[in-house]
Automatic annotation (TrEMBL):
Residues 478-688 form the Histidine kinase domain. One of its GO terms (molecular function) is ATP binding. Keywords: ATP-binding, Cell membrane, Coiled coil, Membrane, Nucleotide-binding, Phosphoprotein, Transmembrane, Transmembrane helix, Two-component regulatory system. Its EC number is 2.7.13.3. It comes from Paraferrimonas sedimenticola. One of its GO terms (cellular component) is plasma membrane. It catalyses: ATP + protein L-histidine = ADP + protein N-phospho-L-histidine. Residues 806-924 form the Response regulatory domain. The lineage of its organism: Bacteria, Pseudomonadati, Pseudomonadota, Gammaproteobacteria, Alteromonadales. The modification 4-aspartylphosphate is found at D855. Its main location: membrane. This is histidine kinase.
């Protein structure tokens, strides 16, 4: 050995020739095992002196004549190296280490073996190249063997080659000359998992221990102080390093570097060194750890994703028991923790490696890193702190997530115990739940059996109840039918009487008609009562007038109020309102019920019907309806039930009212006081169906004060009425109180006012007044009635001058065109027809019209688009002309869409003539007188048609049977569909199908073919819901064909019912007749006899017989228009 050096070396290999090299037991053990031809491996933590041991052993063997080769495995390759390159690199390093390269080129030889596996090539090299190259013993030292773990292929074949060399010794003694010694930081199981091929189970493991005191004292020679101080400092250094070679060398180096301030005495050495280590190592150890040592240990513990938790958990336990140590038999994973360098194993127990490590990697450091890694760390600590209580275990989703996180990781024993106990507890809980579930199933089966028995009893009772309900329904249907029949007669007769009645009886007939209409509505409610009880009552939303509703209510209850000696008052808006959308019948039904109850409960005083608009937005009104009486008030339970919706606590009438208001999204308001009476009402949100008409003042209107009440006086003033004064003349109309005005003040041009339900007095009956007003009444009714009497005093300008109202009718169906044209003609309106929205837009810019009737579903431009285009035209007249929707779309959304597009009103198809007439009168601000009937088709073939609503279709055509027959023939011709036609319709686009069905629905309804219309409506609904199939069309084709077959088989040939020819000068005679009806009725009679004797002439004659000159003029003008159009 050469001269010793006293320089301390921290890191790397220490030469055996230096004084700082400390020989240990491993030096002797390793060289002895290699001399015995054993396979050896030294696996330990880093910085324990493995490299120095390798170097010293290699030098000792070479001194004994053994050929040695040192290979740093980490030099050969990394994760990017292929298996061919790596095994080839081993061969090359062997050639270099044993000095074979001057006589042997490994590269051509390697390639010459072609596709042999790399491990086999290495075996061939050892056997055929290396062993024959010399006769001496050979040892191959492989350092950094753990670097094979970073390769992207398995290294099992390499270690099996080492095993092969030892196995071959029996067959080939030459292999006894070849030994291997492996050095690294790994476990044998990490390097090779296949025990049958592993060399480690036949090799010799050499352990490296730290310095003992005697061994370490050799290092004292390098310290700069006295021998006594140096030895004292070495002993204190071992106290901190525990003999760890690297750390001991580092402490010695630290002492040497701080020799300028030596300790004074041996006793002071400990404090001096402790202070030095505290300031130079422990304080900010990560910043002062140079060369790296502590950081290497830290990374070894923390950066191993798979095993870090197990290492930390076991080390935590070692720290807790560092005085006694932890038995290796009671824990798992201690080998891997040992490789980190933190611990040492002594006599089967695990202890911290040294005091310095326990200061740096203390319990707090371990706890913080465990908490950062374990998702369940707090729960685990809680479980341990509570003595492993079952209440602290994981369960449910948290347990499942924790088990999933732990999958594939090596954990500490406490982790496995905690997770295992949690799983066991949850398993027991599931078993308990399953047991409880089994018991519940048994209990449920028993309960189901009991329920089955009870249901059988309920079903029996239900069958009995259904029998009773069926009997009730049959009784109600029978009663409703029996009552409905005479009511229809009353309605029909009162309507006919209204058409030609004296002013004295007109009011009575109105009341009869309104009361009978209400009774009919109530009978219909009786039929629908089952639906109410079962919650299946549906509302019908359509336009109605709030004022008309108020007047109907007054007519229905006026007589009853008057008969009981009470006063009836009406508080309604003092302005004309737009039509509203809602279920008028249901609102009327509720108010009649409340009014009836109020009349019953009130013995003296008054009944007030209050209708007010409380909120008014662009298209929405909030209307408050209330009935105020002077009776004794409502019982408390009735008030509470109405407000809180407890319909079951009310009688049938109020209970039905409560449900109806709730269906209409209304809210109840109830106030009651025994001294002042009660107020019962509700508010409803209602949508506007157009714009409100303007109030037009009436010329020459006066009133004789005092009038019966201030509200009526204010209404008359709003219509232009002024108090009677000296300025009144013979042409003026005077409104007066029909009960209190003295007989001498009665005027022939007066308009008497009478309370609702009161007959006229004797003096009044002596005057043939054209109009009597029964109050209370709405502003709208008062406005209309006073305007009608004003019109009666004026000539019929439109008829006498030959002028007509001009209406543009946009309708794409020719049958519907004829229907609407006929209706308009009867009211003195000339119809200009077009077939689509584009034509309508062009026509209205070429000619002035008084109004527009607009279908919605039309080609090119639909009705909504055409209306928007008209409203966008620059002239003001296009923004004010009334446009009325005329369509089969009747839902509230459809009405809203029409109004949004700019239309003023909405009339649904099939056309209701009375509704259309009222709508036209409203928007033309006029009143159409009743017209005489047109020529009749004398044949009775229409009556023999099955499935036709004859009365309804004739009503739409002003009872013109001849026109209906012509329309039916035209319908049969238009819808003569072949199979190909049907197939084409079915296969067309959805929009085309919808247009075709919508047109058929309206057309067939207009001519009374209700079955066809209903089938078309059913298919249209299915199409909108995307549920229409090809088979759904069959019933429609069948209904359509049945209707066509009937029409074509029953209708007579056209020449049998052709119009009676007019005389050649009929047009001239009619023009003269119209003129003479104003001048000379006698001569007019003579001219009338010159006209053909057909129905039109008979109707004019009937009107003249009753001195109804105005009707005769209208009929003559209508006849003249027919001739001009023909």
């Amino acid at each position: 050995m050469g001269a010793l050096t006293t320089r301390y070396q921290v890191g790397g290999s220490i030469s055996a020739s230096t004084s700082i090299y400390v020989e240990r037991q491993a030096d002797k053990e390793l060289i002895k095992a290699l001399q015995a031809q054993e396979f050896c491996y030294v696996f330990n933590s880093r910085q324990m002196g493995k490299s120095s041991l390798l170097l010293k052993t290699k030098q000792d063997l070479q001194a004994q004549g053994v050929d040695c080769c040192f290979i740093d495995v980490s030099r050969i390759g990394s994760s990017d190296t292929t298996i061919e390159q790596w095994f080839g690199g081993i061969v090359y390093e062997l050639c270099r280490g044993f000095d074979l390269l001057k006589d042997f080129d490994p590269l051509p030889w390697w390639r010459s073996l072609g596709g042999l596996p790399p491990a086999q090539k290495l075996s061939d090299f050892l056997e055929k190249i290396l062993l024959p190259s010399r006769d001496s013993q050979m040892v191959i030292f492989l350092d950094e063997i753990d670097s094979v773990l970073s390769l992207n292929f398995s290294s099992d074949d390499f270690f099996s080659v080492i095993r092969f060399c030892f196995n071959q010794r029996a067959a080939n003694p030459e292999f006894r000359r070849l030994q291997f010694a492996l050095f690294g930081v790994a476990l044998p199981t990490d390097l090779m998992s296949d025990k049958t091929r592993s060399p480690f189970n036949i090799g010799h493991a050499v352990g490296l221990q730290g310095f003992g005191e005697q061994q370490a004292l050799a290092l004292a020679a390098g310290l700069p102080f006295s021998e006594a101080l140096n030895q004292a400092l070495i002993r204190r250094a071992l106290h901190w390093s525990g003999g760890q070679p690297f750390l001991t060398q580092k402490v010695c180096q630290l002492i040497s570097n701080h020799s300028e301030t030596p300790p004074k005495t041996e006793q002071a050495c400990s404090d001096w060194l402790d202070t030095l280590l505290a300031t130079e190592v422990l304080a900010d150890w990560e910043g002062q750890d140079n060369p790296e040592h502590l950081r290497t240990i830290r990374d070894r513990v923390l950066l191993d994703e798979t095993n870090s938790l197990q290492n930390l958990g076991l080390y935590q336990k070692v720290l807790e028991q560092q005085d006694t140590g932890v038995s290796v038999e009671r824990v798992s994973g201690h080998e891997r923790l040992y490789l980190t360098g933190l611990v040492e194993i002594h006599k089967g127990r695990i202890f911290p490696r040294n005091r310095l490590y326990t200061q740096v990697f203390d319990a707090q450091w371990v706890e913080s890193h465990l908490a950062a890694r374990r998702p369940y760390h707090k729960a685990l600590r809680n479980w341990l702190d509570r003595g492993r209580s079952a209440d602290a275990l994981l369960s449910g989703e948290v347990l499942a997530q924790s088990v999933e996180w732990a999958r594939g990781k090596s954990l500490a024993d406490e982790d496995y115990q905690f997770l295992g106990a949690s799983q066991d507890a949850e398993k027991r809980q599931v078993e308990a739940l399953n047991l409880r579930l089994t018991e519940e199933i048994s209990e449920r089966k028993a309960a189901q059996q009991q329920l089955k028995t009870a249901l059988a009893a309920v079903q029996e009772a239900q069958v009995e109840a259904e029998r009773a309900n069926k009997a009730k329904s049959e009784f109600m249907a029978r009663v409703s039918h029996e009552v409905r029949t005479p009511l229809n007669a009353i309605l029909g007769l009162s309507y006919l009487a209204q058409q030609n009645s004296s002013p004295a009886t007109q009011s009575y007939l109105d009341k009869i008609h309104n009361s009978a209409s209400y009774m009919l509505g109530m009978i219909n409610d009786i039929v629908d009562f089952n639906q109410v009880e079962q919650g299946r009552l549906s509302l019908k939303s359509k336009p109605f007038s709030l004022d008309t509703l108020a007047d109907k209510l007054v007519d229905v209850i006026g007589l009853r109020v008057q008969a009981k000696g009470l006063e009836l008052k009406l508080n309604s808006p003092n302005q004309l309102l737009p039509n509203l959308i809602g279920d008028e019948l249901r609102i009327e039904q509720v108010l009649i019920n409340l009014l009836t109850n109020a009349i019953k409960a009130t013995e003296h005083g008054q009944i007030t019907l209050n209708i007010q608009v409380t909120e008014h937005s662009a298209n929405q009104l909030l209307v408050q309806f209330s009935i105020i009486d002077t009776g004794p008030g409502l019982p408390t339970h009735i008030r509470e039930a109405l407000i809180h919706g407890n319909a079951n606590e009310l009688g049938m009438g109020l209970g039905l009212c409560q449900r109806l208001v709730a269906l209409m999204h209304g809210e109840w308001q109830v106030r009651s006081d025994p001294e002042f009476g009660s107020s019962v009402g509700f508010t409803l949100p209602l949508t506007c169906a157009g714009e409100a008409p303007n109030i037009q003042a009436i010329d020459n209107l006066y009133y004789l004060a005092p009038l019966p009440n201030a509200l009526l006086e204010k209404q008359i003033q709003l219509l232009g009425g002024k108090p009677v004064g000296s300025q009144t003349g013979a042409e003026d109309w005077i409104v007066f109180d029909g009960l209190l005005t003295p007989e001498q003040d009665l005027s022939k041009r007066g308009i008497p006012l009478l309370p609702a339900g009161v007959a006229q007095s004797r003096p009044l009956s002596e005057f043939n007044y054209p109009l009597q007003l029964h109050y209370p009444l709405s502003l709208s009714k008062l406005h209309k009635m006073l305007h009608s009497i004003e019109n009666k005093s004026k000539p019929l300008q439109a008829v006498r001058s030959g002028q007509h109202w001009q209406a543009l009718v946009a309708e794409d169906n020719d049958i519907n065109q004829q229907v609407i044209e006929e209706l308009l003609r009867r009211w003195g309106i000339e119809a200009h027809l077009c077939s689509d929205g584009q034509q309508a837009l062009s026509a209205i810019q070429e000619q002035a019209f008084d109004l527009v009737l607009m279908d919605v579903d039309m080609p090119k431009l639909n009705g909504l688009q055409a209306t928007q285009a008209i409203r966008a035209l620059p002239q003001d007249s296009y923004r004010t002309i009334p446009i009325i929707a005329m369509t089969g779309h009747t839902q509230a959304d459809d009405i809203h869409a029409s109004l949004e597009a700019g239309m003023n009103a909405h009339v649904s198809k099939p056309i209701d003539p009375l509704l259309l007439k009222n709508t036209l009168e409203h928007w033309l601000d006029t009143s159409f007188d009743a017209q005489t009937q047109v020529e009749q088709d004398t044949s009775d073939w229409l009556s023999r048609l099955d499935g036709i609503d004859l009365s309804r279709s004739l009503e739409r055509l002003a009872n013109n049977r001849q026109l209906l027959g012509r329309l039916l023939r035209q319908f049969a011709s238009n819808y003569n569909l072949s199979k190909d036609d049907q197939t084409q319709i079915i296969s067309s686009a959805n929009s085309s199908q919808h247009s075709w069905l919508h047109t058929l629905k309206g057309t067939s309804a207009n001519v009374g073919l209700q079955a066809v219309s209903e089938q078309a409506q059913r298919l249209e609904s299915k199409l909108q819901q995307s549920q229409l199939t090809e088979s759904d069309w069959t019933p429609l084709w069948q209904s359509l064909e049945r209707a066509r077959t009937q029409i074509l088989s029953l209708a007579p040939p056209l020449n049998e019912i052709s119009d009676v020819p007019l005389a050649s000068d009929a047009e001239q005679h009619l023009q003269r007749l119209i003129h003479l009806l104003d001048e000379d009725l006698g001569e007019a009679q003579q001219v009338l006899q010159q006209l053909p004797q057909i129905a039109q002439r008979d109707q004019i004659q009937s009107a003249l017989d009753e001195f109804d000159v105005e009707s005769a003029q209208v009929q003559a003008s209508s006849w003249l228009a027919e001739i001009k159009d023909s």
